[in-house]
């Protein structure tokens, strides 16, 4: 059970607060949400399922997403005594062959003890990680998508639509500099309110 109180101007914020709670209940159909407003009115959003999405798995940092501070922190705690083992064991989806190719391109000795790397070498290491193109993209095991079934259950409960279809793409990576894993999920919903509304064109 999670319980908390907030202070604010409720008269102005009330519609947005209730809409936020409704949207929260929509994407968390396995949660019971209870809200008591300043006037003592009770709002309850009951769950419709006890099924939950699989929890995300802890993952190592991806080479495209690290900075100098992260590398220095890893160097302080690493038990490994050469750079190949350091790369293989501290970074997401970096195998031995990839570690060898990267260290060659970065001009850093594969046998060098990470504890003996200078700050300038750490800076160069980070810069070369951003430029190296042979790192595999991260997998999506660190994500916890709600899934089509649960998203549809939440929509049916909160919106009571006449028509709903939910789609979920396969995991991919965000194409920005840090290559973050991402997964797109989207619903198409038609309610009686939409049917009554005249077209906007």
Q: List the domain count as a whole number.
A: 2
Shape: elongated
- Give me the strand/helix succession: HEEHHHHHEEEEH
The major sheet is characterized as: 2 strands, antiparallel
**DSSP summary, beta strand count:** 6
Task: Kindly report the average pLDDT value.
Answer: 90
Helix content: 25-40%
Structural descriptors:
6 strands, two-stranded antiparallel ribbon, elongated, 12% strand, Helicase, Ruva Protein, domain 3, 201 residues
Characterise this structure.
The chain is an alpha+beta fold and about 200 residues long. The protein has helices spanning about 10-25, 70-75, 85-90, 95-105, 120-130, 150-160, 190-195; strands at about 35, 40-45, 165-170, 170-175, 180, 185-190. The strands form three sheets. The protein has a two-stranded antiparallel ribbon with strand order 1-2. It is elongated.
Q: Can you give me a brief rundown of this structure?
A:
This protein is α+β, with helices and mostly antiparallel strands and 201 residues long. It has seven helices and six strands.
What does the secondary structure layout of this molecule look like, with pairings?
Layout: H1 10-27, E1 33-36, E2 42-45, H2 68-77, H3 83-90, H4 96-106, H5 119-131, H6 148-159, E3 163-168, E4 172-173, E5 181-182, E6 185-190, H7 192-196
Antiparallel strand pairs: 1-2, 3-6, 4-5
């Amino acid at each position: 059970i999670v319980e908390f109180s907030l202070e604010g101007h409720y008269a102005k914020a009330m519609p947005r607060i209730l809409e936020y709670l409704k949207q929260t209940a929509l994407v968390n159909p396995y949660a019971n949400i209870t809200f008591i407003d300043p006037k003592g009115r009770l709002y309850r959003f009951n769950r419709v399922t006890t099924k939950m999405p699989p929890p995300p798995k802890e993952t190592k940092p991806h080479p495209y997403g690290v900075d100098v501070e992260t590398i220095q922190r890893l160097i302080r705690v690493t038990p490994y005594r050469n750079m190949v083992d350091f790369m293989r064991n501290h970074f997401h989806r970096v195998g031995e062959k990839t570690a060898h190719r990267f260290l060659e391109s970065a001009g850093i000795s594969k046998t060098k003890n990470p504890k003996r790397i200078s700050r300038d070498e750490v800076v160069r290491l980070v810069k070369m990680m951003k430029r190296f193109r042979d790192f595999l993209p991260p997998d999506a095991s660190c994500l916890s998508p709600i899934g089509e079934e649960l998203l549809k259950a939440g929509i049916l409960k909160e919106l009571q639509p006449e028509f709903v279809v939910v789609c979920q793409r396969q995991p991919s990576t965000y194409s920005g500099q840090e290559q973050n894993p991402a997964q797109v999920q989207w619903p198409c919903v038609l309610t009686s309110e939409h049917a009554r509304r005249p077209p906007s064109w």
